[in-house]
Amino acid sequence: MKEQTGPTADPQFSLRGKSSILHFYALPIDSGRLVAAPAAFKGISMIDTNRQSELVLVEPGDRLVMLARTLQATDPTAETLLKKQAESIERGAETWIGHALYRHGSVFQSASDAPVWSHFELMYFRGFVPADTIRQLAVNPHGDRVELLRAEILLSTPSSFVLPRGWEGSADHPERTSSLEFLQVEPKHLDEYRKAMRVYCGPAAQTLVQTGRFGTFRAMETAAVLYHDPKFETDWNQVHLCELNPDGFEGFGKEFEAVHRQNISEDAEFSDTFASLGRLRTIPRWTFNDPVIEADAALAR
């Protein structure tokens, strides 16, 4: 499989660290159906409802695929353009589930001095992303008004992609901002990182969503990088999306630890585990954002 050097390349994408993230197979682009799907795909139901709460938990084996794009708008009409484009894709993509667009507001934490992008876009699909969609969004993107910096396929992180049933966006909670945390986990530490998310962070996030502290908590990991602008210096392989009140927020570690203090007697174990994440991952960029579009309610039905 050949490596891509720009958005004009053939839409058979590159897999960064494919052996350590997820094994994917590529289907012929002229099939008109897909660019990628999990090799272990078993066709099970998309969502799993947590029996102890009104939560929807999406696991890696479920049929949910995200196409994410990092964008730099160069024109005030760019958001209207992106909305119309998403509406067009929705009409033509049989596997379409939803769409969200976030406008950069401020930097919460950053290990990178690279300039911040203007928008981050998520499109949700059931099972696969149609090849025509990949062509339109990652191979031949619109030019002058929106610059494509990065395009990638994301899948959910174990036990860590959770929404409240009936989720309809953040409109009823103006005090919340959309937190987007971009992380880089060393390939040799991915299994250990997933275990920490599954055993400690994910269950705590579920409690925080259930109690309304968070709107959702959606941890995703990069399965395939479709395009990365050579001039774009920031890189990651994990994305965490969460709607939260930024007042008094000091990071997920303290939020998760507070939950475990209430529910688990061995508090030190969690503290040590979360502290150990520092050696497993870096946080190149963590931003607070304004939701421009949140047409993703179908994820929680």
CATH architectural category: 2-Layer Sandwich
Average pLDDT score: 80
Terminal Cα separation, in Å?
Answer: 37 Å
Please report the total strand number as a whole number: 12
Q: How much of the sequence is in beta strands?
A: 35-45%
Range of helix content: 10-25%
Shape: globular
CATH class: Alpha Beta
Q: Could you tell me the CATH topology label.
A: Alpha-Beta Plaits
Q: Sheet bearing the most strands, described?
A: 8 strands, antiparallel, barrel
Q: C-alpha Rg, in Å?
A: 18 Å
Number of structurally distinct domains: 1
Please, how many helices?
5
Strand order of the largest sheet: 5-7-6-12-9-11-10-8
Helix-strand category: alpha+beta
The low-pLDDT segments are 1-52
- Topology as a string of helices (H) and strands (E): EEEEEHEEHEEHEEHHE
